[in-house]
């Protein structure tokens, strides 16, 4: 990891995981105090950032665009939500041991697949394993059949749509359209207490840092280079002796797990998980975060998830009608004008500023390398390269 | 059957693309440490031959044996590559977003190219030396840290040749290596291929007859998916059947003008 990135990560980790919770614990009249509402909002953004990291690893590095990551977010969120529903017990509105929506739906006994979620250990395992196994099965079928590019994007979108339809059905015993809500406690701690929410926030921030380190580690290994190589030329990777399907499956499962963990942290902090988080639209929004922040950098994905959602929470409260227009404009703008996102745009701006500051333009020295002379073919190629825009989206 | 010296052996291979027989009952045989050039008019099945050997195309019938007795028909491309068959494509196919060094590092032959090995293994000094040596062989040592994107067309071709050498294959399949190269680059590529063929088998597809004369000892002429004739360059060039199919069109064109 480069020095600058390490320093920036350490600073961000301290601010997010230590400074902000301390500010939140200060008395409300203190000038540095951060309200419970704001901290909770940040906690939600951080869960999105965890998901965006996995999506960036998949899309920004390996070049595999998934329009269905809402499904994995939902799987993690529902796994956590089911445990929280069971924790409510007889404190629910209907004073039944069953979740309220089951009472409305005249379900008399807890469905079999709900029972293991009484166990906290099982729930924590399910948060990781359910998205992982589902991602493994789906990815295996797709990548083994060499479905790639836009075709893969389309079938993941179909996945999001069908999962949304399934989770909406009351017969699934997952709360239908209303999803899972009215959580009271998490592992015995009351969710209405600021202390519990603060602890959840810290867990989320620490998870984000850990997820970042995991993803960065992957990109720095040879496996990370293989991922970039797959984006550049999958055929060459194949004929170099690697199985691109295996690598894509690996990174797909990693991103599915990160999405599941993000969903599981989202549910108790927001207090509700519904099929609306699973469908096509939220899955596309997730891609927009990564595109807006900048693909293939990891920090771009984090900034994108944080930034876009911050703007969203501001716009939806101040100008509720504008939000969707803004989202559409943001995606089109990112695709048309900033293919490398905010990070790429800032990088170009910085490079231009440095060029302006640097006094005389350096004379370009053409070194002939080896014994190869500079012939006209090379010159025309060189001018062609120089006339291209600084960086094009490939 | 396959002698002790055979590196690749195709018997009665037919490839059918929706009724078009790209290869038709083809028999083809190459010795170890042989440099063979395959020529033939467009559509003769030259690239399909490479596709069959490297696993990209599965023939509808026939046998493809690598070395003594390895049947290649049921293996995937990456498995065939791991066995020791390297392939250089016609248009340069390199990883443009990686450095020149990384391009060769990824191609380097290893016991395992699985995900776990790629995550946890670190390259030993010996591997780094091999990468550096390969880069020197293709005259890209000075550009090891360049992004492959920044290389010229000819340099990308060499980089890809370097990547295939780094795979340490027993058999190299090379598809039109000098297309789009300058005369000087062409001459150097020829020298490079001859050096490679000193301890490996090399199968080259080429259109450029001057280049063929430079490197070839033995030439195979393909026509309509089968071997038309085989032999030393001079003999093949004067074979009336070859003149018929290979130069025939030109003569017809000449006749039409006349």
Summarize the structure.
The complex is a heterodimer of chains A (394) and B (258). Chain A has 394 residues and is mainly alpha-helical.
What does the average pLDDT of chain A come to?
Answer: 88
Uncertain segments of chain A are 361-394
Spatial separation of the terminal alpha carbons of chain A: 25 Å
Spans of chain B of at least 5 consecutive residues whose pLDDT stays below 50 are 252-258
Our Rg estimate of chain A from Cα atoms comes to: 24 Å
Distance between the termini of chain B: 51 Å
How many β-strand runs of chain B? Answer: 10
Q: Specify the helix fraction band of chain A.
A: 55-70%
Q: Based on helices, strands and strand pairing, what is the structural class of chain A? A: mainly alpha
Main pleated sheet of chain B: 6 strands, mixed
Order of helices and strands of chain A: HHHHHHEEEHHHHEHHHHH
**Mean residue pLDDT of chain B:** 88
CATH class category of chain B = Alpha Beta
- Characterize the largest beta sheet of chain A: strand count, sense, and whether it forms a barrel: 2 strands, antiparallel
What does the overall shape of chain B look like? Answer: globular
- Named at the architecture level, the CATH assignment of chain B is 3-Layer(aba) Sandwich
């Amino acid at each position: 990891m480069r020095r600058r990135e390490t320093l920036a990560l350490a600073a961000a980790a301290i601010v997010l995981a230590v400074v902000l919770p301390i500010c939140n614990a200060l008395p409300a009249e203190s000038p540095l105090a951060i309200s419970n509402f704001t901290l909770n909002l940040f906690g939600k953004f951080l869960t999105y950032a965890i998901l965006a990291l996995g999506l960036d690893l998949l899309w920004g590095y390996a070049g595999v665009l998934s329009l269905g990551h809402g499904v994995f977010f939902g799987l993690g969120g529902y796994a956590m939500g089911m445990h929280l529903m069971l924790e409510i017990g007889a404190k629910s509105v209907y004073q039944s041991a069953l979740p309220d929506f089951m009472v409305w739906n005249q379900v008399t006994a807890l469905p079999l697949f709900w029972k293991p979620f009484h166990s906290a250990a099982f729930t924590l395992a399910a948060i990781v394993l359910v998205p992982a196994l589902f991602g493994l099965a789906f990815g295996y079928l797709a990548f083994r059949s060499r479905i790639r590019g836009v075709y893969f994007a389309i079938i993941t979108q179909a996945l999001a749509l069908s999962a949304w339809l399934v989770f909406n059905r009351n017969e699934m015993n997952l709360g239908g359209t209303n999803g899972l809500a009215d959580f009271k406690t998490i592992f015995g701690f009351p969710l209405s207490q600021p202390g519990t929410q603060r602890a959840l926030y810290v867990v989320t921030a620490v998870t984000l840092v850990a997820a970042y380190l995991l993803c960065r580690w992957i990109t720095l290994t040879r496996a990370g280079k293989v991922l970039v190589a797959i984006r550049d030329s999958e055929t060459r990777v194949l004929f170099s002796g690697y199985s691109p399907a295996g690598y894509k499956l690996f990174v797909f499962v990693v991103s599915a797990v990160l999405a599941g963990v993000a969903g599981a942290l989202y549910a108790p902090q927001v207090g509700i998980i519904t099929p609306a988080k699973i469908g096509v639209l939220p899955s596309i929004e997730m891609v927009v975060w990564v595109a807006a922040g900048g693909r293939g950098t990891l920090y771009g994905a984090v900034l994108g998830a944080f930034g876009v959602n911050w703007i969203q929470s501001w716009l939806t409260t101040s100008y509720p009608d504008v939000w969707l227009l803004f989202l559409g404009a943001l995606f089109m703008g990112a695709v048309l004008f900033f293919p490398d996102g905010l990070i790429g745009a800032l990088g170009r701006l910085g490079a231009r500023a440095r060029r302006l500051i640097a006094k005389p333009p350096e004379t370009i020295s053409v070194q002939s390398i080896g014994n190869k002379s500079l012939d006209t073919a090379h010159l025309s190629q060189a001018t062609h390269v120089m006339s291209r825009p600084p960086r094009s989206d490939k | 059957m396959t002698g002790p010296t055979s590196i690749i052996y195709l018997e009665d291979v037919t490839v059918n693309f929706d009724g078009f027989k790209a290869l038709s009952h083809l028999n083809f045989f190459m010795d170890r440490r042989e440099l063979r050039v395959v020529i033939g008019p467009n559509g003769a099945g030259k690239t399909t031959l490479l596709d069959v050997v490297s696993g990209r195309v599965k023939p509808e019938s026939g046998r493809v044996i690598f070395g003594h007795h390895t049947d290649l028909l049921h293996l995937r491309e990456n498995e065939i590559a791991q066995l020791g068959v390297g392939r250089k494509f016609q248009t340069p196919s390199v990883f443009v977003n990686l450095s020149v060094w990384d391009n060769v590092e990824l191609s380097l032959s290893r016991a395992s190219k699985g995900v776990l090995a790629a995550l946890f293994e670190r390259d030993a000094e010996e591997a780094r030396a091999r990468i550096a040596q390969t880069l020197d062989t293709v005259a890209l040592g000075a550009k090891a840290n360049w992004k492959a994107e920044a290389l010229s067309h000819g340099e990308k071709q060499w980089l890809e040749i370097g990547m295939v050498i780094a795979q340490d294959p027993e058999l190299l399949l090379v598809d039109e290596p000098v297309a789009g190269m300058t005369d000087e680059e062409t001459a150097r590529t020829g020298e490079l291929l001859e050096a490679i063929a000193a301890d490996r088998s090399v199968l080259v597809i080429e259109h450029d007859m001057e280049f063929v004369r430079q490197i070839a000892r033995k030439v195979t002429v393909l026509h309509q998916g089968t071997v038309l004739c085989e032999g030393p360059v001079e003999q093949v060039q004067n074979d009336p059947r070859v003149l018929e199919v290979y130069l025939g069109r030109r003569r017809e064109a000449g006749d039409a003008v006349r």
